[in-house]
Design a protein that fits this description.
By secondary structure, the protein is an alpha+beta fold. Strand 4 and strand 5 form a beta hairpin.
Length: 165
C-alpha cells in the first residue's frame, strides 16, 4: 500500500510550518507513534530550510511525502543549481559552528538519506524513516497487514517533473 501527498510550495519561510503541519496531521491520523512523527518533523524542516537557504534561482519547491510499505518516504525537490550532499553531515559539526548541523541531524534521525542532483534541474533530497504505529492503527486496517513497495521516484523525479510555474 502506498499513500502519497505532493505539495508545490513557494520558496518562502512561511511554507515550512505549513508543510510540516500537513504532514504531522496526516501521520497522526494514520496513528503513527509521536516520537516517530517528531523525528519526521525535524528532518522535513531541515530539508525545506536548506531549499530556502541554498536553492538559488528557484521560486518554488515541491515536497512529496507518504507511506511506502512500512516507511515514511519524503522527497524535497528544488529547481536550484544543485549540490553534492553525499559527503555533507558525515563528520560532526564544530561545537561553535553556526551552520552545518542540518544534514548531520537528518542523517541521525532517518534510516536513509540520499541527494540526487542534476545540473540546471535541481536537487532531490530523499529521506526514509521506518514507521512505528500505535496499537490498532488505521493503516494496518486499511492495508489488512499487506504492505508493498510503491512507485517512489529517485532520478526519474528530476527528469519527469513539471517545469516551475
Amino acid at each position: 500500500m502506498e499513500i502519497k501527498l505532493t505539495l508545490a510550495l513557494p520558496r518562502d519561510q512561511l511554507s515550512v510550518p505549513v508543510v510540516r503541519r500537513i504532514l504531522k496531521a496526516s501521520l497522526e491520523t494514520l496513528e503513527i507513534e509521536q516520537a516517530t512523527i517528531g523525528d519526521i518533523e525535524v528532518v522535513l524542516t531541515e530539508a525545506c530550510t536548506d531549499v530556502l537557504d541554498h536553492a538559488d534561482g528557484a521560486d518554488e519547491y515541491e515536497v512529496s511525502a507518504g507511506i511506502n510499505g512500512g516507511q515514511c518516504v519524503i522527497e524535497v525537490f528544488d529547481r536550484g543549481g544543485g549540490f553534492d550532499g553525499s559527503l555533507h553531515g558525515l563528520a560532526e559539526a564544530e561545537p561553535h559552528a553556526e551552520e552545518g548541523r542540518g544534514i548531520q541531524l537528518m542523517r541521525a534521525l532517518v534510516d536513509r538519506l540520499e541527494f540526487t542532483t542534476k545540473p540546471a534541474l535541481g536537487t532531490v533530497v530523499h529521506l526514509e524513516k521506518q514507521l512505528t504505529w500505535q496499537s490498532g492503527a488505521v493503516i494496518t486496517r486499511l492495508g489488512k497487514g499487506q504492505m508493498s513497495d510503491g512507485p517512489w521516484s529517485r532520478d526519474e523525479h528530476l527528469e519527469d517533473a513539471p517545469a516551475p510555474r
